[in-house]
TrEMBL record:
<protein>
    <submittedName>
        <fullName>Sporulation histidine kinase inhibitor Sda</fullName>
    </submittedName>
</protein>
<dbReference type="InterPro" id="IPR036916">
    <property type="entry name" value="Sda_sf"/>
</dbReference>
<dbReference type="InterPro" id="IPR015064">
    <property type="entry name" value="Sda"/>
</dbReference>
<dbReference type="Pfam" id="PF08970">
    <property type="entry name" value="Sda"/>
</dbReference>
């Protein structure tokens, strides 16, 4: 995850939710967003 820019991480998160990927993967992305203190609007799954 450390190789992703903040913008790329946000894009990957939104894309993962849109594609309804594995919930564990989405949670991993959310954890990284929290770790970086990036706040984004919740996306309904």
């Amino acid at each position: 995850m450390k190789y992703l820019s903040d913008q790329m991480l946000i894009e990957v998160y939104h894309r993962a939710v849109d594609l309804q990927l594995d919930s564990a993967f989405i949670e991993l992305l959310r954890s990284e967003l929290d770790h970086r203190e990036i706040r984004i609007a919740q996306v309904s799954a």
